[in-house]
Amino acid sequence: MSTGLPRISRRRALQGAAAGFVAFGLLLWWLLPLGEEPPSGRIKFSTGTAAGVYEKYGELLKDALGQDMPGLKVRLEDSDGSQVNVERVATGQADFTIAAADAVETYQLDKGAGADQLRGVARLYDDYVQLVVPRDSPIRSVAQLEGKRVAIGPSGSGVRLIADRVLKAANIDAQKDITPFPDGINTGPGQLERGEIDAFFWSSGLPTGGLTTLAKTFPFRFVPIGADLITKLHDQGGASRYYRATNMPASAYPSVQKGSTVATIAVSNLLMTRADLDPRLTEWLTRTVIRSRDRIGEQVHSAQLVDVRTAIYTDPLPLHDGARRYYRSVKP
């Protein structure tokens, strides 16, 4: 007796296999836009300072891009932050970057070179302003920074932009009423620990590795930034419209916050490029950003908030044609 399948079973098996191949083909079509070969070439991606979220996100996105587009060579370039990043992309020194919305609009309002060529790829996650002081510091409000030594970020950073505005809202001139230090998350924590400064500003997604590391060796806390300052910030006009009142969740730095939220300011981050970047490349990159959310989010928690439904809101930038093409392809 034959041990093979009955004829009808073979037919059904072949039909099932054919259906499987069709399903697999559809899956490939979904994963690979338009059934095309992945784009190749070279791009420059401007990130941020060491120990900051921009840098870490850039590293993880580079790995994700390498899996989706093996022929694409991504060069990461560190920077002082948002203001430098915007200028680099606008002037062709970099192809992609992340920057806070207030820095983008400030560059536009200042009529920076190439500002009209800037385009959005995705709204990513929010930056939270974090004003850090030693745990035993007498400083309880922004107004009490007057006369103190305060790190307000490098001149080209988004931190500097927002710190200047927050201080102004508290009637403090950053160049006259405090001793300003041009330090960010890469050097500020060490200075605070050594007693060289009294406080430092930081603005980033949550949590930031530099602060998580500091919490292991040095007791610090966050100074709240209340709603009264938000109102005064909005009164400054211009890009200040992007600041909104929020609370830093207690889960951001559990050993520091000990179950308490902290009143502060948030501003959205944008992944951006220029209008002349290849639409097909930008479409693929946008797809990778959305698909790699959970993978990147395992190490950069703020990246877990990237969502296709909110990613399209890249105000003040119009969407790049390639990004728009991707979002339309996945529209419910």
Task: Explain what the structure shows.
There is one protein chain. The chain is an alpha/beta fold. It has helices at 7-31, 53-68, 82-90, 101-109, 158-169, 188-193, 209-214, 227-235, 254-257, 279-291, 293-297, 308-311, 321-329; strands spanning 41-46, 72-77, 96-100, 118-134, 149-151, 179-181, 199-204, 220-222, 244-248, 262-274. Helix 2 (53-68) crosses helix 10 (279-291).
Order of helices and strands: HEHEHEHEEHEHEHEHEHEHHHH
Helical percentage:
25-40%
List the total number of helices.
Answer: 13
Secondary-structure class: alpha/beta
Low-confidence stretches: 1-11, 17-31
- Strand fraction band? 15-25%
Quick tags:
20% strand, alpha/beta, 332 residues, globular, 38% helix, disordered N terminus, 13 helices, ten-stranded mixed beta sheet
Please give the structural blueprint.
Elements: H1 7-31, E1 41-46, H2 53-68, E2 72-77, H3 82-90, E3 96-100, H4 101-109, E4 118-134, E5 149-151, H5 158-169, E6 179-181, H6 188-193, E7 199-204, H7 209-214, E8 220-222, H8 227-235, E9 244-248, H9 254-257, E10 262-274, H10 279-291, H11 293-297, H12 308-311, H13 321-329
Parallel strand pairs: 1-2, 1-3, 5-6, 5-7
Antiparallel strand pairs: 3-10, 4-7, 4-8, 4-10, 9-10
Helix pairs in contact: 2-10, 5-8, 10-13
